[in-house]
Amino acid sequence: MHPFEFYLKLGFEHISNLAGYDHILFLVVLCAIYRIQQWKNILILVTAFTIGHSVTLALVSMDIFTIPSSIIKFLIPATIFITALHNVIGVNPTLEPKRMGRNYVMALFFGFIHGMDFSNYFKALIMGDSSILVPLLGFNIGIELGQLLVVFFIVGIAFLFLNVIGTKHRDWNVFISGAAAGMSLISMLEYKFW
After folding, report:
1. Which residue spans traverse the membrane (predicted)?
2. Exposed/middle/buried for 154, CB within 10 Å: 0-12, 13-18, 19+?
3. What is the largest CA-CA distance in the chain?
4. Taking all residues of the chain, what is their mean pLDDT, rounded to a whole number?
5. Whole-number pLDDT of residue 2
């Protein structure tokens, strides 16, 4: 197997693995406020998240920047909790276009944090490789493809509830964001700072 294909497959499997549910949960809560008709906004949002974690992944892999994984294990559920809270107490982005810009910045910034978690896994894989360009490109594209698959599934479920069953959008958002906030809060409270 070509190295690019190898890393592409690893990136895809890493994001779509249910054992790493925290990244999937972040994508779920990130998309909770959007309808299928806003698919362009969703793609831009997910791409902003990908850009954020790609930059961090590159910096950590080249030993330019690092944060202990123990801190990252706390920060990731914190990003989920903050996003969920923002979904519920914020203004609907369809009513306030400026909020879309804030959502993109938030997704980009939280992508930096999630990229630090990806980087520990990725860095262990490339030990001994002289160039990280092909592994980095393959792994990031694999993660993006995995994320798009997860988002497609999330938006499909939302479409079913909102358009077929007739759930109100506000109720859907509060339910999904509340569940994500609860799960992330439990993870944060279980974190040991010592």
Report:
1. 20-36, 43-65, 71-92, 104-126, 146-165, 172-189
2. buried
3. 55
4. 84
5. 76
CA angle, corner 50, sides to 32 and 92, nearest 5?
30
pLDDT over 90 percentage in the chain? 29
One-letter amino acid for residue 173 of the chain = N
Report residue 16 as tokens: 């779509």
Neighbours of 25 (CB within 10 A): 22
What residues contact residue 78 under an 8 Å CB cut-off, 6+ apart?
Answer: 184, 188
Question: Which two tokens mark 109?
Answer: 């910034």
Structure-token pair, residue 94:
């369809």
DSSP collapsed to 3 states, the chain: CCHHHHHHHHHHHHHHCHHHHHHHHHHHHHHCCCCHHHHHHHHHHHHHHHHHHHHHHHHHHCCCCCCCHHHHHHHHHHHHHHHHHHHHHCCCCCCCHHHHHHHHHHHHHHHHHHHHHHHHHHHHHCCCCCCCHHHHHHHHHHHHHHHHHHHHHHHHHHHHHHHHHCCCHHHHHHHHHHHHHHHHHHHHHHCCCC
Asked if residue 12 lies in contact with residue 145, where contact means CB atoms within 8 angstroms, the answer is yes
The domain limits of the chain are 21-190
Name the residue with tokens 């990725």: 122
CB 142 within 8 A of CB 153: no
